[in-house]
Each structure stands twice: as structure tokens, then as C-alpha cells.
Amino acid sequence: MKNIMPSIYLDYNNENVDANEFIGKDIIEKDDIEKKLNEKILQLEEELQYTKECLQTSNEEQLVYNEEILSTNEEIKSVNNELIKINSQYQQKNEELADLYNDMKNYLNSTDIGTVFLDENLCIRKFTPSITKEINLKGKDIGRPLNHIVSNLINDDLNIGASEVLSSGMMYEKETQSKNGNWYLLKCVPDRTTQNLIKGVVLSLVDITNKKLLNETILSENLKTEFFTNLSHELKTPLNVILSALQLLDTFTGREDIKDKEIKTKKYNNIMKQNCYRQLRLVNNMIDITKLDAGFYELNLQNCNIVNIVESVALSVSEYIKTKSIELIFDTDIEECIISCDPEKIERVILNLLSNSIKFTKPGGSMTVNMYDKGENIIISIKDTGIGIPNDKLDIIFDRFRQVDRSLTRKQEGSGIGLSIVKSLVELHGGQISVTSEYGKGTEFIIILPVMTLPIENDKYGVFEVESQDRIERVHIEFSDIYSLN
Asked: Is the Cα dihedral 422, 482, 405, 383 positive or negative?
């Protein structure tokens, strides 16, 4: 590159300036300027070279960037195509979900299984039309708590079942009946998300009325068959005993002295009498069952001291209970309580329960009869330390023809209708009877009777005869299933 030096014009008009001195200075300055210019030129050349290198690098980077942009454009194009494909699939899935929703909606609207969907607060999210048959739901009830809704179920366990499902995460299932007589299987299951989280409860009512009726019919027929099988056994056993006793009496004639004959005759006469009582008890029970079923069973209501009746019945059998080495305890927190009742039927109830306790209480055990005054009610408790009743048998203990031990070789006799009659007699008095038991430790029957009296003009009650002959006969009849050959 040429160094182009600038032209320098010197002004020599000043006469006082020494020409040689000026020329020497000019040469020095010129050299300095040239040197500085050369240095500046070198600096600029270096900067230019650096700039070229930067531009080259920038250009290379721009090329790379352009290539990346092209690649990114290709990727965006590919992603866009993929999004179009996914969107198409998404639209297809939406259409399938819409079809599925419509199918489910049509199914739920057409099914006979009533269903309610509840959220985690047991508020109603949606329901099927068929549920409105038994639960009074309308569209405006969406969002309302379930316990604010009225149902036609006799034992309304809807909220209880739903709450139990939320707390336990397990299915709740129970048979329930409506006020119109229909039977339903109440099912509550957790409403779970895909992450297995419980977001609410699905409650449904499955109509099992026809199945229930069929099962009850089959059960009734089976029970009748079993009852008549047991009945034939109950009828034959006393007859066989009486017949055997008569045959034995025949063998004694003419072979033994008079004293032995009298002892054995008395013994077998007692056996025959006891079995006659058993037959009479069975016949009486069958007659009573028939009257109860036909609605012709009537009570001879009188104003009676119920405490006196129960105490006298308990005391009348206390000596017999002692012979079995069983302790009998009677206790009451009230000396007198006048209620409207049929004293003979109350006596029969107490005798039957005492008889049951004696049957299943081993020697050395105890029986307790307690009475409690609860104001509007009087409570009678008959408790023993016997063998008890298994938990799975407690629900059937008062069912007709049902027995805890159903075999013909059972240790204790009975037709399976005594406790059913006891329950009916208590309910005819407007009362209730229940049982609690722990297997192997004992049983307690609890009777609750309302304290109500007849108007004085209708009061037919006289003195309750504790030791009447009729009453002694009734004790023999009720206790005839408890064998005693003495």
C-alpha cells in the first residue's frame, strides 16, 4: 500500500525566521508524522484484518445458524404434521367419548337399577331416573347432601352405608325393605379415579323382591318339611315311651311283691304322664300357631301386678331348678307395677324362657330373673350361664320352626315353635323381646312391656292364684321337654 504523504506548505514570509532552522525542524516533524502515519496505518490494517476475520467467523456462524433454522423448520413441519395427526385422533377420541357418554346415559336412564353418584362430601352429583321410585330426588337436588333427601326405605341406611364406604374404602352391602313392601339390595362402592383415589360413592338399589319371595318360599317349604320331620319325631318319641312303660308294667304283673310293683308302677306312670304333657304341649303350640296365623288369637287383658306374676312363676319352679343343681336368683327394683296384660300368657312366656335356660345350663350354673322399672316400660331379664348361642344363630332364634341344633339326635327336645310363640305373645302385649348371647358363656332374654292399664270399669283382674292346680299343670306342660324319670 502506498504511503501518500500530505503536502506541506511552508510560509517564509517571516523575515525573522532562520531558513535553515526551519528546514531542519520540518524534516524532523516530517519524519515523526510519517512514522506516526505508518504506525496508524499498521494499526488500521490489523483492525481491518481482525474485522475480516470477525466477519468471516460471523458469516460461518450465520451459515450454521441458517442450517439450524432449516433443520428447525423441518422439525417444526414434522411436529406440525404430528400435531395434525394427534388432533385428528383427539377428535376421533372425543367422538368416541361422546358416543360412550350417550350410551352410558341411555343405559342409566333405561336400567331398573337405581343409582346415585355422590361426591366426597356425600352430596349428590347425578342419579338415574329409576332411583326416584324409592328416593325422592329431583333435578334441583343436585349438590344437596344425601342426608337431606327423604327415602321410602324402612331402615334408611343410605347415609350410614355411604359414610362407611368413604371411611373404610370397602364395599357396603345390605338387604333393605321399602314401605311399599319391595326388597332391595343396597350397595355402596367407592367411586375411584384412574389414580385409585376415592372421589365419592356410587350408591345403588337392586330390586330383589322376586328373588326374596322365591327364597322365602323355598325356605318356608324347607322349614315346613323339616318341621314335619321333627314333628313326627316329637309325636313318636312320647308314644314309644308310653308304650314301653305299659309293656314293662305288664311284665311286672304276678312276678314281684306288691311294694316293688307300686314303686315301678308309680315310676312308669310318671313317665307316661310326662310324655302325655309333652304331647299336650306340642298340640297346644300347634293350635296357638294356627290361631296366630289366622289372627284369631285373643288376650284376656286384666290390670295385673306384673312383678307379682313374674316372681310367683319363678318361685314356683325354684325347687325344681334346685334339683338340677342350678341356682335361681330373682331381683327387682320395684315391688309393684300394674299393667294391662293376660296373666296366663305372661306366665307362659316366663315358663318357656325358664325352661330353655334350664335345658342349656349345666349343673353348678345359675339363672337370674331381674325386673327394672323404666317409667313408661317395665323390663324383664332372664339370664343364664348356659352354653350360649352362636352369633350366626341369633337372628333365627325367634323364627318359626328354626332350631339352633336341627339334628334329630340333638340333646334337647323341641319342635322349634316355642320361642316363636313367645315372641308373638310379647308383641300382642305391645312389647318387644330380644336376645344377647356369648357362645360358651350364657344367654340373656330381655322383654320390654309398656306400662299401660285398662280403665277401671274394664278391669277384670282378680287375685293371681300362685298355687292353683291349673297353674301346676301348666308348669308340668311347659317343663315336659326336660326329662326327669323320678
From this structure: positive
3-state secondary structure 276-324: HHHHHHHHHHHHHHHHHHHCCCCCCCEEEEHHHHHHHHHHHCHHHHHHC
pLDDT single digits (tens) 372-397: 998 899 999 999 999 988 888 888 88
From CA 85, how far away is CA 68, in angstroms rounded?
25
Give SS3 for 145.
strand
**Backbone phi, psi, residue 170, to 5°:** -110, 160
* Cβ-contact 152, 179 below 8 angstroms: yes
* Strands 366-373 vs 327-332: parallel, antiparallel or unpaired: parallel
Task: Indicate the DSSP class of residue 6.
Answer: P
SS3 call for 68 = helix
pLDDT tens by residue, 316-362: 888 778 888 899 999 998 889 999 999 989 988 998 899 888 888 88
Residue positions counted in the chain = 486
Single out the residue of 177, 228, 179, 229 nearest to residue 205, CA to CA: 177
Instruction: Name the more confident of 228 and 348.
Output: 348
The per-residue pLDDT for range 175-221, each reduced to its tens digit, is 888 888 888 989 999 998 888 889 999 999 988 888 877 777 777 76
CA 262 to chain centre: 64
| Residue 432 near residue 397, CB atoms below 8 Å | no
The closest of 331, 333, 344, 335 to 301, measured between CA atoms, is: 344
Q: 19: burial class by Cβ within 10 Å (0-12, 13-18, 19+)?
A: exposed
458 close to 248: Cβ distance less than 8 angstroms: no
State pTM to two decimals: 0.48
Distant-in-sequence, close-in-space partners of 193: CB < 8 Å, separation ≥ 6: 199
User: Partners of 339 in the beta sheet?
Assistant: 304
Residue listed under C-alpha cell 315353635: 417
Q: 184 pairs with which residues across the strands? A: 176, 207
Amino acid letter, residue 292: L
Burial class (CB in 10 A: 0-12, 13-18, 19+), 37: middle
Tell me the pLDDT of the chain averaged across its residues. Answer: 79
